Amino acid sequence: MRKIVCGSILLASLVAPAFGAPAKKRVAVMNFDFGTVHRWWSGDWDIGKGIADMVVTELVKEGTYSVIERKALDAVLAEQNFANSNRADASTASKIGKLLGVNVILVGSITQFGTEDKGFSLGGIGGKLGGFGGGKVGTSKGKANVVIDARLVDVNTGEILAVATGKGESSRSGLLLAGGGAGGGGFGAGGIDMGSKNFQETIIGEATRQSVQGVAKEVVASAGKIPTSKIEIRGLVADVEGKTIILNVGSSSGVQVGDHLKVVRVSRTVKDPATGQVLREITEDVGEIEITEADAGSSTGSIVSGTGVKVGDVVRNE
């Protein structure tokens, strides 16, 4: 059967994992800005990335949203060369969100991160911190406080749909970081592993966890403010082997494991004689596939109906 498809349809709304099934609203979490926080630490410790990863974990565990994977976000940021200084900006977030195929993007700032004693410092410790298993870090005691302000940005309009605030205070006073062998890596925080049990057991880790949970809770409560929209998925078959096919689109275009996509073949195009722009595509149905794997730039699917799928055939959602 042949169908006429308008060639000018662009991204419009959220993809359903299967035809007719309701889909979760998709969100991407940007690294949090921390330029206003007094930098009492030493070395390369990106607390903005560490806290963003902790928020992602909370949202994934809760399950209301479909959260874009970090790999896809990092790929778009690298490709578009967005500066860290712009990561809390709503207009920049909107552009990134459209490229990722999400409904909203979460941006925010860390407005407090430290002890109630503003005189706290690392003393004579210099260079990269490289973990904090070598002993106590810091010269004075106090309760740790962490405050995070976040915003949910509509990727289509740039409008701030909701705000969320998380506040955390340690239940006890103590040195900001103490021994425990946290090591490096983990949760993108450079010399401190903010996802480790050792970090969580420090007073700053305790306050950070509270603030992250507070932000995640308010973001979940704001899900109803996000308009339901649909993203058109359109890609090409790049490889066929038996019933397994590989597509040239992946999670950064909205493709998710479990999605059912139609395969069609373009038999003819109708172009504007004045501009050469494609006005219509005349297509015929070839089959249907189910996505079994997806990374940022490609995906793998299994043919569930139809025969004769070829390289160059078009795949799309309905």
Task: Explain briefly what this protein structure is.
With about 325 residues, this protein is an alpha+beta fold. The protein has helices at about 45-60, 70-80, 90-100, 195-200, 205-220; strands spanning about 1-5, 25-30, 65, 105-115, 145-155, 160-170, 235-240, 245, 260-270, 280-295, 300-305, 315.
Q: Which features does this protein show?
A:
single chain, alpha+beta, Thrombin, subunit H, Rossmann fold, 6-stranded antiparallel barrel
Which strand order does the major sheet show?
7-8-11-10-9-12
In total, how many domains does the architecture comprise?
Answer: 2
The CATH architecture of the largest domain can be named as 3-Layer(aba) Sandwich
Number of strands: 12
Describe the structure in your own words.
With 318 residues, this protein is an alpha+beta fold. Helix content is 19%, strand content 30%. Strands 7-8-11-10-9-12 form a six-stranded antiparallel β-barrel. It has a five-stranded mixed β-sheet with strand order 3-2-4-5-6, sandwiched between helices. A hairpin with a 6-residue loop joins strand 9 (260-271) and strand 10 (278-294). Helix 1 packs across helix 5. The chain is elongated. The two termini are 16 Å apart.
